[in-house]
Design a protein that fits this description.
By secondary structure, the protein is α/β, with parallel strands linked by helices. The chain is built from twelve helices and eight strands. The protein has an eight-stranded parallel β-barrel, surrounded by five helices. The structure holds 2-phosphoglycolic acid.
Length: 254
């Protein structure tokens, strides 16, 4: 059984006061706490506060970063290492988000190096993949997404233990647009990703990897998306800023 992984991605949003309001305002049932992983990926500068403020109040909320650099230390002005994330209390780290691929030149090769560094340092990688609208409309969804999965993740098969990593399928056209993929569209791609992972890593590892859907997930569509057999969680942008909305998403009804 794959434990559902419900993650918020605050992107470049939030503040010290928002962290406190969010943690104070977030509430889910004990059953949800026991059966699901709940994560907030906050900006770097808020991570230590998130861990410290959350620990005494909502210890079941785990925290993650939205990017990392693959080198362990040195003259890389502006970058953050895996060890720094760990010290700030990070459980996981998003890598290869489409906004980073689009605006900051992230490639499958750099995402793969980041994944390897996270695995070596004991921080859980959440590797994002997804096609643009143009790629979908020209019938290239499978080619694009499978290329990303191979280049970012499967490239490390045989050299890294990939059991337990998280992959997030986020169609770029659904991110921040209010336009969600239908549950059938999302399942189609997530099951294709599962097939690739099973083929490359074997079914024991492949079937244990959690595949998330991301792209305008919200309280109204989460139940249907989470009912799909190969969707094991969500990566939630806009709706994860509001504690009540994110609590409802994490409490999706099976
Ligand atoms: P969204 O963002 O939920 O606001 O569409 C998702 C994401 O980019 O991870």
């Amino acid at each position: 059984m794959r434990k559902p992984f419900m993650a918020g991605n605050w992107k470049m949003n939030g503040s010290i006061s928002h962290v406190k309001e969010f943690i104070d305002g977030f509430s889910v049932s004990e059953e949800v706490v026991k059966t699901r992983e709940i994560v907030i990926c906050a900006p770097f500068t808020l991570l230590s506060l998130c861990s410290e403020y959350g620990a005494g109040r909502k210890p079941y909320i785990r925290f993650g970063a939205q990017n990392v650099y693959f080198e362990p230390k040195g003259a890389f002005t502006g970058e953050i290492s895996v060890a720094m994330l760990k010290e700030a209390g990070c459980y996981c780290c998003i890598i290869g988000h489409s906004e980073r691929r689009q605006y900051f030149g992230e490639t499958d090769a750099t995402v793969n190096k980041k994944m390897n560094a996270l695995l070596d340092g004991g921080v859980l990688p959440v590797v994002c993949v997804g096609e643009t609208l143009e790629e979908r409309e020209s019938g290239r969804t499978e080619a694009v997404v499978s290329g990303q999965v191979k280049g970012s993740v499967i490239a490390s098969a045989g050299t890294k233990d990939l059991a337990g990593i998280v992959v997030a399928y986020e169609p770029v056209w659904a991110i921040g647009t209010g336009k969600t993929a239908t549950s059938a569209q999302a399942e189609e791609v997530c099951s294709m990703i599962r097939g690739l992972l099973n083929e490359a890593l074997g079914e024991t590892v492949g079937n244990g990897i959690r595949i998330l859907y991301g792209g305008s997930m919200n309280p109204a569509n989460v139940d249907e998306l989470m009912a799909q057999p190969n969707i094991d969680g969500g990566l939630v942008g806009g709706a994860s800023m509001k504690p009540a909305d994110f609590a409802r998403i994490a409490s999706y009804v099976e």
